[in-house]
Specification:
By secondary structure, the chain is mostly beta strands. The protein is built from 3 helices and 39 strands.
Length: 482
Protein backbone atom coordinates (compact mmCIF):
# COMPACT_ATOMS: atom_id res chain seq x y z
CA UNK A 1 0.00 0.00 0.00
CA UNK A 2 1.55 3.29 -1.08
CA UNK A 3 1.55 6.53 0.84
CA UNK A 4 -0.54 9.36 -0.58
CA UNK A 5 1.08 11.75 -3.01
CA UNK A 6 -1.82 13.95 -4.09
CA UNK A 7 -3.03 16.49 -1.55
CA UNK A 8 -6.41 16.94 -3.25
CA UNK A 9 -7.03 13.18 -3.38
CA UNK A 10 -5.98 12.85 0.24
CA UNK A 11 -8.32 15.57 1.47
CA UNK A 12 -11.24 14.12 -0.47
CA UNK A 13 -10.55 10.67 0.95
CA UNK A 14 -10.23 11.93 4.50
CA UNK A 15 -13.39 13.99 4.40
CA UNK A 16 -15.36 11.12 2.84
CA UNK A 17 -14.15 8.72 5.50
CA UNK A 18 -14.91 11.27 8.14
CA UNK A 19 -18.40 11.93 6.78
CA UNK A 20 -19.20 8.28 7.35
CA UNK A 21 -18.72 8.77 11.09
CA UNK A 22 -21.94 9.34 13.01
CA UNK A 23 -22.21 12.61 14.93
CA UNK A 24 -25.58 11.84 16.44
CA UNK A 25 -23.96 11.39 19.82
CA UNK A 26 -22.41 14.29 21.69
CA UNK A 27 -18.80 15.07 20.85
CA UNK A 28 -16.70 13.27 23.47
CA UNK A 29 -14.70 15.24 26.02
CA UNK A 30 -11.33 13.51 25.87
CA UNK A 31 -10.10 15.44 28.88
CA UNK A 32 -12.20 12.95 30.87
CA UNK A 33 -11.27 9.99 28.67
CA UNK A 34 -7.56 9.50 29.24
CA UNK A 35 -6.18 12.84 28.00
CA UNK A 36 -6.38 15.06 31.11
CA UNK A 37 -3.48 17.46 30.44
CA UNK A 38 -3.90 20.64 28.36
CA UNK A 39 -0.51 21.02 26.67
CA UNK A 40 -1.42 23.85 24.28
CA UNK A 41 -4.32 26.25 23.88
CA UNK A 42 -5.23 28.99 21.42
CA UNK A 43 -8.28 31.09 20.61
CA UNK A 44 -8.96 31.16 16.86
CA UNK A 45 -11.26 33.70 15.27
CA UNK A 46 -13.92 32.62 12.78
CA UNK A 47 -12.39 31.61 9.47
CA UNK A 48 -8.84 32.48 10.46
CA UNK A 49 -5.79 30.30 9.86
CA UNK A 50 -3.60 29.44 12.84
CA UNK A 51 -0.55 27.48 13.91
CA UNK A 52 0.00 25.82 17.27
CA UNK A 53 3.39 24.49 18.34
CA UNK A 54 4.48 22.74 21.52
CA UNK A 55 7.55 20.60 22.20
CA UNK A 56 8.08 18.68 18.91
CA UNK A 57 4.53 19.05 17.55
CA UNK A 58 3.14 21.52 15.02
CA UNK A 59 -0.54 21.91 14.13
CA UNK A 60 -1.51 23.86 11.01
CA UNK A 61 -5.11 25.03 10.97
CA UNK A 62 -6.16 26.23 7.49
CA UNK A 63 -8.22 29.31 6.78
CA UNK A 64 -11.93 28.47 6.94
CA UNK A 65 -11.56 25.50 9.29
CA UNK A 66 -14.02 26.95 11.83
CA UNK A 67 -17.22 28.86 11.13
CA UNK A 68 -17.30 30.53 14.56
CA UNK A 69 -14.64 31.69 17.00
CA UNK A 70 -13.27 28.68 18.93
CA UNK A 71 -11.02 27.76 21.80
CA UNK A 72 -8.67 25.07 20.51
CA UNK A 73 -7.05 22.88 23.17
CA UNK A 74 -4.54 20.10 22.65
CA UNK A 75 -4.72 17.33 25.25
CA UNK A 76 -2.32 14.60 26.29
CA UNK A 77 -2.42 11.63 28.67
CA UNK A 78 0.17 9.58 30.50
CA UNK A 79 2.35 7.74 28.01
CA UNK A 80 2.52 4.69 30.27
CA UNK A 81 -1.27 4.29 30.23
CA UNK A 82 -1.35 4.18 26.43
CA UNK A 83 1.67 1.90 26.24
CA UNK A 84 -0.23 -0.65 28.34
CA UNK A 85 -2.94 -0.81 25.63
CA UNK A 86 -0.69 -0.49 22.58
CA UNK A 87 -0.49 -3.28 19.99
CA UNK A 88 2.23 -5.82 20.72
CA UNK A 89 5.64 -4.78 19.48
CA UNK A 90 4.69 -1.10 19.22
CA UNK A 91 6.16 1.70 21.37
CA UNK A 92 3.96 4.76 21.87
CA UNK A 93 5.90 7.93 21.10
CA UNK A 94 3.13 10.52 21.35
CA UNK A 95 -0.54 10.63 22.33
CA UNK A 96 -2.93 13.54 21.90
CA UNK A 97 -6.51 14.62 21.42
CA UNK A 98 -8.36 17.83 20.56
CA UNK A 99 -10.94 19.68 22.60
CA UNK A 100 -12.44 22.44 20.45
CA UNK A 101 -15.12 24.66 21.95
CA UNK A 102 -17.35 26.90 19.85
CA UNK A 103 -17.33 30.20 21.77
CA UNK A 104 -20.64 31.26 20.23
CA UNK A 105 -22.65 28.17 21.16
CA UNK A 106 -20.36 26.93 23.96
CA UNK A 107 -20.55 23.45 22.43
CA UNK A 108 -17.70 21.12 21.54
CA UNK A 109 -16.85 20.91 17.84
CA UNK A 110 -16.48 17.39 16.48
CA UNK A 111 -16.20 17.97 12.73
CA UNK A 112 -14.00 20.62 11.08
CA UNK A 113 -14.60 22.32 7.75
CA UNK A 114 -11.03 21.48 6.74
CA UNK A 115 -8.52 18.98 8.18
CA UNK A 116 -5.99 20.17 10.76
CA UNK A 117 -2.49 19.01 9.78
CA UNK A 118 -0.54 17.35 12.61
CA UNK A 119 3.28 17.10 12.41
CA UNK A 120 5.50 15.36 14.94
CA UNK A 121 9.30 15.18 14.91
CA UNK A 122 11.22 12.59 16.90
CA UNK A 123 14.48 10.64 16.56
CA UNK A 124 12.33 7.48 16.77
CA UNK A 125 10.15 8.28 13.75
CA UNK A 126 10.98 5.89 10.89
CA UNK A 127 9.36 3.82 8.14
CA UNK A 128 7.78 1.54 10.76
CA UNK A 129 5.91 4.40 12.48
CA UNK A 130 2.13 4.16 12.59
CA UNK A 131 -0.80 6.47 13.29
CA UNK A 132 -3.60 5.10 15.47
CA UNK A 133 -7.04 6.34 16.45
CA UNK A 134 -7.72 6.08 20.18
CA UNK A 135 -11.37 5.30 20.79
CA UNK A 136 -13.33 6.55 23.78
CA UNK A 137 -12.73 3.22 25.56
CA UNK A 138 -8.96 3.61 25.11
CA UNK A 139 -8.54 0.93 22.44
CA UNK A 140 -6.23 1.37 19.43
CA UNK A 141 -7.48 1.26 15.83
CA UNK A 142 -5.13 1.85 12.90
CA UNK A 143 -6.09 5.00 11.01
CA UNK A 144 -7.37 4.27 7.49
CA UNK A 145 -5.08 6.92 5.98
CA UNK A 146 -1.34 6.29 6.14
CA UNK A 147 0.83 9.09 7.52
CA UNK A 148 3.45 10.86 5.47
CA UNK A 149 6.98 10.35 6.83
CA UNK A 150 9.86 12.57 5.77
CA UNK A 151 13.07 11.95 7.66
CA UNK A 152 12.21 12.12 11.35
CA UNK A 153 8.89 13.93 10.88
CA UNK A 154 5.47 12.29 10.63
CA UNK A 155 2.47 14.26 9.34
CA UNK A 156 -1.21 13.37 9.24
CA UNK A 157 -4.42 15.36 8.66
CA UNK A 158 -7.21 15.28 11.25
CA UNK A 159 -10.65 16.36 10.01
CA UNK A 160 -12.29 16.47 13.43
CA UNK A 161 -12.16 15.43 17.06
CA UNK A 162 -14.28 12.25 17.47
CA UNK A 163 -11.25 10.20 18.57
CA UNK A 164 -7.82 10.68 20.12
CA UNK A 165 -4.60 9.62 18.43
CA UNK A 166 -1.28 7.92 19.08
CA UNK A 167 1.95 7.74 17.11
CA UNK A 168 3.98 4.55 17.49
CA UNK A 169 7.15 2.94 16.16
CA UNK A 170 8.28 -0.64 16.21
CA UNK A 171 9.76 -1.36 19.63
CA UNK A 172 12.81 -2.94 18.03
CA UNK A 173 13.71 0.35 16.34
CA UNK A 174 13.25 2.63 19.34
CA UNK A 175 16.48 3.65 21.00
CA UNK A 176 16.27 2.89 24.68
CA UNK A 177 19.50 3.72 26.47
CA UNK A 178 20.11 7.09 28.06
CA UNK A 179 23.54 7.22 26.46
CA UNK A 180 21.95 7.05 23.01
CA UNK A 181 18.86 9.04 23.65
CA UNK A 182 19.45 11.12 26.75
CA UNK A 183 17.57 11.10 30.02
CA UNK A 184 15.05 13.76 28.95
CA UNK A 185 16.09 14.75 25.45
CA UNK A 186 12.47 15.19 24.39
CA UNK A 187 12.77 18.51 26.25
CA UNK A 188 14.86 21.01 24.28
CA UNK A 189 16.48 24.24 25.41
CA UNK A 190 19.56 26.32 24.81
CA UNK A 191 21.62 28.56 27.07
CA UNK A 192 24.03 31.48 26.98
CA UNK A 193 26.46 32.76 29.61
CA UNK A 194 28.68 35.84 29.28
CA UNK A 195 31.76 36.33 31.47
CA UNK A 196 31.75 39.45 33.69
CA UNK A 197 34.49 41.04 31.58
CA UNK A 198 32.57 40.25 28.36
CA UNK A 199 35.53 38.39 26.90
CA UNK A 200 33.97 34.90 26.82
CA UNK A 201 30.58 33.47 25.92
CA UNK A 202 29.51 29.89 26.60
CA UNK A 203 26.61 28.48 24.58
CA UNK A 204 24.82 25.15 24.51
CA UNK A 205 21.87 23.36 22.97
CA UNK A 206 20.47 20.30 24.73
CA UNK A 207 20.36 18.50 21.38
CA UNK A 208 24.15 18.83 21.06
CA UNK A 209 26.55 16.74 23.15
CA UNK A 210 28.99 19.60 23.54
CA UNK A 211 29.26 23.24 24.58
CA UNK A 212 30.93 26.05 22.65
CA UNK A 213 33.11 28.80 24.06
CA UNK A 214 33.42 32.01 22.01
CA UNK A 215 36.13 34.64 22.25
CA UNK A 216 34.07 37.84 22.11
CA UNK A 217 37.14 40.03 21.67
CA UNK A 218 38.31 38.24 18.53
CA UNK A 219 34.81 37.26 17.46
CA UNK A 220 35.77 33.63 16.96
CA UNK A 221 34.98 30.19 18.34
CA UNK A 222 37.60 29.56 21.00
CA UNK A 223 36.88 25.91 21.81
CA UNK A 224 34.22 23.22 21.66
CA UNK A 225 34.08 21.05 24.78
CA UNK A 226 32.67 17.54 24.28
CA UNK A 227 31.46 14.88 26.70
CA UNK A 228 27.97 16.16 27.54
CA UNK A 229 24.66 14.44 26.76
CA UNK A 230 21.97 17.04 27.44
CA UNK A 231 23.66 20.27 28.61
CA UNK A 232 21.05 22.58 30.09
CA UNK A 233 22.40 25.78 31.60
CA UNK A 234 25.66 27.65 32.21
CA UNK A 235 26.55 30.35 34.75
CA UNK A 236 29.81 32.10 35.56
CA UNK A 237 30.65 32.03 39.26
CA UNK A 238 32.89 33.96 41.63
CA UNK A 239 34.85 36.66 39.82
CA UNK A 240 34.22 34.98 36.49
CA UNK A 241 37.24 32.71 36.64
CA UNK A 242 34.98 29.62 36.54
CA UNK A 243 31.73 28.58 34.93
CA UNK A 244 29.31 25.78 35.79
CA UNK A 245 27.37 23.64 33.30
CA UNK A 246 24.36 21.49 34.28
CA UNK A 247 23.57 18.29 32.37
CA UNK A 248 20.20 16.65 33.00
CA UNK A 249 21.25 13.20 31.76
CA UNK A 250 24.56 13.08 33.59
CA UNK A 251 22.82 14.59 36.61
CA UNK A 252 25.87 16.69 37.41
CA UNK A 253 27.28 20.19 37.61
CA UNK A 254 30.61 20.54 35.82
CA UNK A 255 32.99 23.28 36.97
CA UNK A 256 35.38 24.66 34.34
CA UNK A 257 38.36 26.99 34.56
CA UNK A 258 37.48 29.96 32.37
CA UNK A 259 41.13 30.66 31.55
CA UNK A 260 42.30 27.29 30.23
CA UNK A 261 38.84 25.69 29.80
CA UNK A 262 39.76 22.57 31.76
CA UNK A 263 37.39 20.60 33.97
CA UNK A 264 38.10 21.36 37.63
CA UNK A 265 35.29 19.59 39.47
CA UNK A 266 32.02 17.71 39.03
CA UNK A 267 29.19 17.65 41.57
CA UNK A 268 26.36 15.10 41.44
CA UNK A 269 22.88 16.61 41.91
CA UNK A 270 20.79 13.90 40.21
CA UNK A 271 19.31 13.29 36.74
CA UNK A 272 16.94 16.05 35.69
CA UNK A 273 19.27 18.93 36.71
CA UNK A 274 18.20 21.89 34.59
CA UNK A 275 18.13 25.65 35.17
CA UNK A 276 20.62 27.27 37.55
CA UNK A 277 20.90 30.63 39.31
CA UNK A 278 23.55 32.09 41.61
CA UNK A 279 22.91 34.13 44.76
CA UNK A 280 24.03 37.79 44.85
CA UNK A 281 26.78 36.97 47.39
CA UNK A 282 28.08 34.35 44.92
CA UNK A 283 28.13 31.67 47.62
CA UNK A 284 25.09 29.58 46.65
CA UNK A 285 23.86 27.95 43.47
CA UNK A 286 20.18 26.98 43.09
CA UNK A 287 19.51 24.11 40.67
CA UNK A 288 16.11 23.19 39.22
CA UNK A 289 15.42 19.48 38.80
CA UNK A 290 12.55 18.87 36.40
CA UNK A 291 12.55 15.08 36.89
CA UNK A 292 12.21 15.21 40.68
CA UNK A 293 10.22 18.47 40.85
CA UNK A 294 12.72 19.96 43.27
CA UNK A 295 15.36 22.65 43.73
CA UNK A 296 18.80 21.69 45.03
CA UNK A 297 20.87 24.17 47.03
CA UNK A 298 24.61 23.89 46.39
CA UNK A 299 27.34 25.42 48.58
CA UNK A 300 29.81 26.75 46.00
CA UNK A 301 32.75 27.01 48.37
CA UNK A 302 32.45 23.40 49.51
CA UNK A 303 31.14 22.22 46.12
CA UNK A 304 28.46 20.26 47.90
CA UNK A 305 24.64 20.04 47.80
CA UNK A 306 23.32 21.06 51.21
CA UNK A 307 19.55 20.87 50.85
CA UNK A 308 16.74 19.84 48.51
CA UNK A 309 13.46 21.75 48.44
CA UNK A 310 10.45 19.82 47.09
CA UNK A 311 6.92 20.76 46.10
CA UNK A 312 7.48 22.03 42.56
CA UNK A 313 5.99 20.74 39.30
CA UNK A 314 8.71 20.05 36.73
CA UNK A 315 10.83 23.19 37.11
CA UNK A 316 12.94 23.63 34.00
CA UNK A 317 15.05 26.56 32.81
CA UNK A 318 13.33 29.43 34.60
CA UNK A 319 14.91 30.34 37.93
CA UNK A 320 15.81 33.83 39.20
CA UNK A 321 17.20 35.05 42.55
CA UNK A 322 15.98 38.44 43.80
CA UNK A 323 18.61 41.20 43.97
CA UNK A 324 18.66 41.10 47.78
CA UNK A 325 18.98 37.30 47.77
CA UNK A 326 15.91 36.85 49.96
CA UNK A 327 13.71 35.07 47.42
CA UNK A 328 14.13 32.63 44.54
CA UNK A 329 11.50 32.58 41.77
CA UNK A 330 11.04 29.22 40.01
CA UNK A 331 8.89 28.51 36.95
CA UNK A 332 6.93 25.25 36.86
CA UNK A 333 6.29 23.62 33.49
CA UNK A 334 3.27 21.78 34.87
CA UNK A 335 0.58 24.09 36.14
CA UNK A 336 2.09 27.19 34.51
CA UNK A 337 2.98 28.83 37.80
CA UNK A 338 5.84 30.53 39.61
CA UNK A 339 6.88 29.20 43.01
CA UNK A 340 8.57 31.63 45.40
CA UNK A 341 11.24 30.30 47.79
CA UNK A 342 12.16 32.09 51.01
CA UNK A 343 15.93 31.56 51.18
CA UNK A 344 15.95 31.92 54.98
CA UNK A 345 13.38 29.22 55.67
CA UNK A 346 14.28 27.29 52.50
CA UNK A 347 10.62 26.69 51.75
CA UNK A 348 7.98 27.68 49.19
CA UNK A 349 6.05 30.64 50.58
CA UNK A 350 3.89 31.58 47.60
CA UNK A 351 2.67 30.42 44.20
CA UNK A 352 1.72 32.82 41.41
CA UNK A 353 -0.62 31.44 38.74
CA UNK A 354 -2.39 32.57 35.57
CA UNK A 355 0.37 32.07 32.99
CA UNK A 356 0.15 30.19 29.69
CA UNK A 357 3.16 28.07 28.69
CA UNK A 358 5.45 30.19 30.87
CA UNK A 359 9.04 30.60 29.73
CA UNK A 360 11.59 33.16 30.95
CA UNK A 361 11.08 35.43 33.95
CA UNK A 362 12.81 38.57 35.25
CA UNK A 363 12.46 40.41 38.56
CA UNK A 364 13.06 44.14 39.06
CA UNK A 365 15.85 45.32 41.39
CA UNK A 366 13.36 46.56 43.98
CA UNK A 367 11.72 43.12 44.08
CA UNK A 368 8.26 44.54 43.39
CA UNK A 369 7.60 43.38 39.82
CA UNK A 370 8.05 40.14 37.91
CA UNK A 371 7.86 39.83 34.13
CA UNK A 372 7.02 36.46 32.54
CA UNK A 373 6.91 35.34 28.90
CA UNK A 374 3.78 33.41 27.90
CA UNK A 375 4.40 31.48 24.68
CA UNK A 376 0.84 30.13 24.94
CA UNK A 377 -0.81 33.52 24.48
CA UNK A 378 1.94 35.64 22.90
CA UNK A 379 2.32 38.05 25.77
CA UNK A 380 4.42 39.27 28.67
CA UNK A 381 2.67 39.14 32.04
CA UNK A 382 3.41 41.89 34.54
CA UNK A 383 3.12 40.63 38.12
CA UNK A 384 2.77 42.59 41.35
CA UNK A 385 4.89 40.36 43.58
CA UNK A 386 3.47 41.67 46.87
CA UNK A 387 -0.05 40.79 45.73
CA UNK A 388 0.99 37.69 43.81
CA UNK A 389 -1.23 38.78 40.92
CA UNK A 390 -0.89 39.52 37.21
CA UNK A 391 -1.72 43.22 36.84
CA UNK A 392 -1.01 43.76 33.15
CA UNK A 393 -0.54 41.85 29.91
CA UNK A 394 1.66 43.12 27.07
CA UNK A 395 1.06 41.69 23.60
CA UNK A 396 4.27 40.78 21.78
CA UNK A 397 5.38 38.54 18.89
CA UNK A 398 4.44 34.92 18.45
CA UNK A 399 5.79 32.37 20.93
CA UNK A 400 7.75 34.69 23.20
CA UNK A 401 10.41 32.87 25.20
CA UNK A 402 12.69 35.58 26.54
CA UNK A 403 11.92 38.29 29.10
CA UNK A 404 15.19 40.02 29.99
CA UNK A 405 15.41 43.26 31.95
CA UNK A 406 18.11 45.82 31.25
CA UNK A 407 20.41 46.60 34.21
CA UNK A 408 18.62 49.90 34.93
CA UNK A 409 15.24 48.17 34.69
CA UNK A 410 13.92 50.60 32.10
CA UNK A 411 13.72 48.15 29.19
CA UNK A 412 12.54 44.58 28.77
CA UNK A 413 13.62 42.47 25.81
CA UNK A 414 10.91 39.96 24.80
CA UNK A 415 12.13 37.48 22.18
CA UNK A 416 9.71 35.92 19.71
CA UNK A 417 10.76 32.43 18.60
CA UNK A 418 8.39 32.27 15.63
CA UNK A 419 8.78 35.86 14.43
CA UNK A 420 12.59 35.88 14.83
CA UNK A 421 12.54 39.23 16.57
CA UNK A 422 12.79 41.03 19.89
CA UNK A 423 10.12 43.44 21.08
CA UNK A 424 11.56 46.22 23.26
CA UNK A 425 9.23 47.19 26.11
CA UNK A 426 9.38 50.45 28.07
CA UNK A 427 8.74 49.31 31.65
CA UNK A 428 7.54 52.76 32.73
CA UNK A 429 4.29 52.35 30.82
CA UNK A 430 4.60 48.72 29.65
CA UNK A 431 4.43 49.59 25.96
CA UNK A 432 6.34 48.03 23.05
CA UNK A 433 8.43 50.92 21.74
CA UNK A 434 10.62 49.14 19.21
CA UNK A 435 11.12 45.85 17.37
CA UNK A 436 14.55 44.45 16.52
CA UNK A 437 14.64 41.89 13.71
CA UNK A 438 17.25 39.59 12.21
CA UNK A 439 17.46 36.78 14.77
CA UNK A 440 16.85 33.04 14.25
CA UNK A 441 14.45 31.45 16.73
CA UNK A 442 15.62 33.40 19.79
CA UNK A 443 14.57 31.78 23.07
CA UNK A 444 15.32 32.60 26.70
CA UNK A 445 19.04 33.22 26.23
CA UNK A 446 19.35 37.03 26.35
CA UNK A 447 22.01 38.81 28.41
CA UNK A 448 22.72 42.54 28.80
CA UNK A 449 26.16 44.05 29.35
CA UNK A 450 26.73 45.58 32.80
CA UNK A 451 26.22 49.12 31.50
CA UNK A 452 23.16 48.09 29.47
CA UNK A 453 24.53 49.42 26.20
CA UNK A 454 24.74 45.99 24.59
CA UNK A 455 22.73 42.80 24.64
CA UNK A 456 23.70 39.32 23.53
CA UNK A 457 21.05 37.03 21.99
CA UNK A 458 21.49 33.33 21.21
CA UNK A 459 20.15 32.01 17.90
CA UNK A 460 18.96 28.52 16.94
CA UNK A 461 22.28 27.64 15.30
CA UNK A 462 24.19 28.70 18.45
CA UNK A 463 25.46 31.89 16.86
CA UNK A 464 25.35 34.98 19.09
CA UNK A 465 23.92 38.28 17.90
CA UNK A 466 25.27 41.40 19.63
CA UNK A 467 22.77 44.24 19.82
CA UNK A 468 23.37 47.96 20.19
CA UNK A 469 20.56 48.72 22.63
CA UNK A 470 20.36 52.47 21.96
CA UNK A 471 20.41 52.06 18.19
CA UNK A 472 18.02 49.08 18.36
CA UNK A 473 19.95 46.98 15.88
CA UNK A 474 22.25 43.96 15.56
CA UNK A 475 25.82 45.13 15.14
CA UNK A 476 27.53 41.79 14.66
CA UNK A 477 27.00 38.03 14.96
CA UNK A 478 29.51 35.50 16.26
CA UNK A 479 29.43 32.14 14.49
CA UNK A 480 31.25 28.86 14.96
CA UNK A 481 32.66 28.96 11.44
CA UNK A 482 33.74 32.59 11.61
Amino acid sequence: MKKFTSASFLMALIMSLFAATSFAAAVPDFQTLGFPKVVAEQTINAGEAAKITYEHVELKIPEGTFTNKVKFQVLEGNLEDFQAKAPKGETVLKNFAFKVTDLTTNERVGKFNKPVLFSYTSPDINSSSKYYNIKTDGTFALNNVLPEIHGKTLTHPNPGAPVGWAVTSSSSTVKKTAEEKGFDDDITNNSLAISPDEKLAVVSDSREKSIRVFDLVKGTLHKEIHGFITPRNTVFIGDGSEFVVSDSTLGTLRFYDANNLTLKDEVVVGPGAFGTAISPDKETLYVNNQAHSSVTIVDLERRKPTEVITGFAQPRQGIVVSHDGRYVFVTNFKGDKVSVIDTETKSIVREITGFSMIRAISVTADGRTLYAANSGRDSISVVDISKGEITNEIKVGREPYGAALSPDGKLLFASSKLDNRIDVINTLDNRVIETIKGFTEPRQAIIFSHDGSRAYVLNRDLSISRVDVKAGMITDTFRANK
